[in-house]
Every structure is written in structure tokens, then in C-alpha cells.
Amino acid sequence: MSPDLDLTGAVTARNPLCKLLDLDGRLFEAAAAWHWPGAERVLPRLSRGANHGVLWFATAAAMAASRTPRSRRAAVRGLASLGLASLTINTLGKRSVRRARPVLDPVPLVRQLRRQPITTSFPSGHAASAAAFATGVALESPAWGAAVAPVAFSVAASRVYTGVHFPSDVLAGAAFGVGAAFLVRRLVPTRAGVRRPARPRAEAPALHEGDGLVVVANRASGTADRVRALHDALPAAEIVECDPEDVADELAKAAARARVLGVCGGDGTVNAAAGIALRHGLPLAVLPGGTLNHFAYDLGVEDERDLARAVRHGEAVRVDAGRFVSGDTEGLFLNTLSLGVYPELVRERDRWSHRIGGWPAGVLGALRVLRADRHPLRLEVGGEQRPLWLLFVGNGVYHRMGLAPGRRTDLADGLLDVRVVHGSRRPALRLLAAAVAGPLTRSPAHAAVQVNRLRLTGVAPGTPLAYDGEVTVVSDELTVENMPEALTVYRPLRTAL
After folding, report:
1. Are the beta carbons of 263 and 270 closer than 8 angstroms?
2. What mean pLDDT value characterizes the chain?
3. What is the Cα–Cα distance from 256 to 462, expressed in whole angstroms?
4. Which of 167, 252, 255, 403 is least buried, going by the fewest C-beta atoms within 10 A?
5. Is the peptide bond before 123 cis (omega within 30 degrees of 0)?
6. What does 130-151 look like in DSSP terms, one character per residue?
């Protein structure tokens, strides 16, 4: 009696699967018999174009060429999601379920691909890649996601249309792809998903048409289109475009007649505007226009739409600023201050940036600095002299994930984020080890602490110091302190419609 029960149980367990496979086959045959208007010219070509992810790499390149931060992040996230989906499909999916490809007899010859795939059928790698890329893009930029989604759907449909997959293969592949995109988001949250505390809120004028806003734009940053778009959004605002050497003078003149001081440029230009806004007690409106734009992006202002919305509604917060003093030299920083190899890297980058561009110059500068035969910086910290390759001080605590760029979620935490890379024979290995250590507070190469004031002594005369992309020199004693809630800055507090 026992064998009969086992056999009955096995047959009962198999029936649902058999029914699903039978339904899958009938859907495939129905799709083959159905006339798809206009598809004969498009879908086979689209299916071939998606081989090896070529279509998606080309789409990502087009998105990145738009030069908006959100588009570039969406492109990177889409490719990362695609990569994870492809790895999962090829290592686990197709090796776990060895399903034969459909028989092509019901599929019209005009639809069939010239080269038939030789891998197993389940799940569809093309559908997984398409869904992963489209979902990854949409999680970062819904607008780009809406543009990419129809293409992704068409690629997935093309696999059934051309007869190389059953419908269930495509559905399973798409599910893999969507899951991969959400896993990538879990590992690396989107910028919109990182919660920035909207505090402390500040009183600031609501300039509905921009009347009273004077924006000084650094012409060298190539911000003409962005400034023009801001003026369209706030037609009563005054825009002053000037060369880099005139930025400080124009900011001082603007502060004398403005209700709100605006600035468009990189972090160095924003730093100059912040100092003048502090001296005049003015709120600051920041439009990113440089290469990195750390302060604006951490603030939540990515483009002219974000800034215009905040200015129209009077949405603003108070943020901390950092201050350093060394003898007769003093300054302000909104992002970071550093001693050691980084100021030298900035100098090398500035030497080459006008010839080969900012990013290539940064890479070249890093290679030249790290390959040079040099000695570590020696500072007295807590009465003890220590060799250091790098001392980094952030205005607010930076959150890092391994080698990923740092960001801040709170610009008013009242802290200085102090990190050091200890000295050794050569800087390259130490700096790489510190980068890999990421957020760890202590490692053989790297240490970190959060304070509100830092005092260093024994600084050699002429030691270069970098702050917000600018370089100066300090000597003997250096004091760095946090200035809590020193500056009022416009920041969008509402969700864009």
C-alpha cells in the first residue's frame, strides 16, 4: 500500500507543473500565430541590438551625455542592476533549469533570428537585462525610467515574437531583473532615498518671481544654460555672469543690494559666496555649476528647478560651517579641509585641468603625487608627533561605502569628521588601504573621530592646506572648529510634482 501512496503523491505534485507547461506552450503558439502590426521590422532588430547588453550600454552613454547629475546616476544604477542580473542569470538561472528552446515550426520565417541562441531557455537573459536596466534607471530618475520602459518591454516581447523563448522564460527573467535592481538599491541607496533631516528650518524670504535675488555665476564653469533656465523660472532675479578673477568683487557688490545672495559655480565659488553671505547676514541660494558640487548635492539642490522651487516658497535651513585659523591665515569651508598629499593633488590637477579637462587632470594629478618619492607630513596631535599622509576634516559627518564617494545626510550635526591616514614608506598602499576600510573608525592605515574643535601644532612653515578645492599655506599652529548653524541656505523641502 505504501508504494501506491508514493506514486499517487508524485503524480499529484506534478500535475500543476504539467498544466503550467502546457499553458506556456499554448501561449507561445498563440503568440506565433498572432499578427503583430509593424513588429516585423522592429522587434527582431531590437532583439539583436540587445545582445551582450549593447543596446543598454548605448542608452546609458546617451543618458550620461545629458550632463545632469540625476541622469548620470540613473545610467550608472541601470548598468549596475544589469550587471547583477546578468551574473545571476548566467551563473545560477540557466544552470539550474535546463529547459530546451521552443520548436520554431509555428514561428513565421520572417520573424526568426539569423543566429539562434545555443544556451538553455529558462530564464530569458535579454528580459532580465532589460527589466534590470529599466528598473534601475527608474529608481533613480522616474522621467528617464518612463522613457526607457517601452524599449525594455519591447525587448522582452521580442524574445517571444522571434521564437527563442517561452512566455514564462520572459516573465521569470523580468522578475530576476527587477529583483536585481532593488537589491542594488538596498546596497547603494538612491540619493532621493537617503533621508536628509530638514532641520533646523530657517526663516527666509519667499521670492515668487525672484525679485531681490542676485545670482553671481562663474562663467568658467560653463553654466550659461543652467543660469538661463534659472532666469526663466525666476524672471525677476538679477543674474551677473563674470570671469573667475572677478567673482569675489561681484559677490561683494551683489551682497550690498540683494535680499538673497545667489551663486552658481563649483565648490570654490560657493565657498567665496558663503563667506560674504555670513558677513552680510544674507541667506544663500546655491545653484550647482562645477564638477563635483558636493555642498549643493548634499543639500538636495541638483538643478535650477530644485533651487527655484525653494526660493519661491521660502524653504530654507540652517547649516554648519567650518572655520580654520593659522597665524594670519584664516578661512571658511563648507565641505572639507585637508593636509598632506591631497593639497598637492589639487595643485597638480589645477596645472593640467585647462589643458585636458577636470576629471583627466584629477587622475593624472593623483598618479604624479602617489608615484613621487616624498616623506609623510609630521604633526603634533595631543602632544605627540605623528607621521601622516593625509589629514581630512569634513564639515559634518561623511558616510562612505568602501570606495564610493562620501556624502552627508545632516549638514547641521555640529561635528567635524576627522580622518587620518598614518604615514609609512610610500603613500599609495596606505591610501588604498584607508579607502577600502571605508567607514571603519580604526584600521592599521586609517583612523577617524568626530569632534567640534581640533588643534594641531608643529605644522611646518609653508605646508599646503586644501579647503573646498582651493589651496593656501599654513604653519606652526592650526585650529579648526565647527560653527554650528552659521549659514541660512535655500533648500527644497517639498516633493516635486
Report:
1. yes
2. 82
3. 35
4. 403
5. yes
6. HHHHHHHHHHH-HHHHHHHHHH
CA dihedral 186, 192, 196, 202 (to 10 degrees): -170
∠ CA 363-369-371, nearest 5°, is 100
Residues 303/68, Cβ–Cβ less than 8 Å: yes
Beta-carbon count within 10 A of 349 CB = 22
Please tell me whether residue 250 adopts helix, strand or coil conformation. Answer: helix
> Above pLDDT 90, what percent of the chain?
42
Distance CA(56)–CA(52), nearest Å, equals 9
Q: Quick check: 367 and 345 in contact, CB under 8 A?
A: no
- The pTM of the full predicted model, rounded to 2 decimals, is 0.67
Distance (Å, whole) CA 387 – CA 436: 20
440-472: pLDDT as tens digits = 444 556 677 899 999 988 888 889 899 998 889
Q: What is the pLDDT of residues 325-345, one digit of tens each?
A: 998 899 999 999 988 877 666
* Spatial CA neighbour of 433 closest among 477, 394, 389, 379: 389
Q: Residue 260: name the closest of 316, 215, 294 by CA.
A: 215
End-to-end C-alpha distance for the chain, whole angstroms: 68
Tell me the average pLDDT across 297-308.
89
**C-alpha distances in angstroms, 47 versus 18, 134, 445?**
29, 16, 50
Pick from 138, 177, 168: nearest CA to 50 = 177
Tell me the one-letter amino acid at 112: Q
Cell 508514493 belongs to which residue?
6
Pairing of strands 316-326, 470-490: antiparallel
Alpha-carbon distances, residue 445 vs 185, 390, 426 (angstroms): 30, 11, 12
User: Dihedral of the CA atoms 379, 385, 389, 392 (nearest 10)?
Assistant: -50
CA distances from 234 to 150, 211, 227, 314 (A): 35, 8, 10, 13
Which residues make beta-bridge pairs with 490? 316
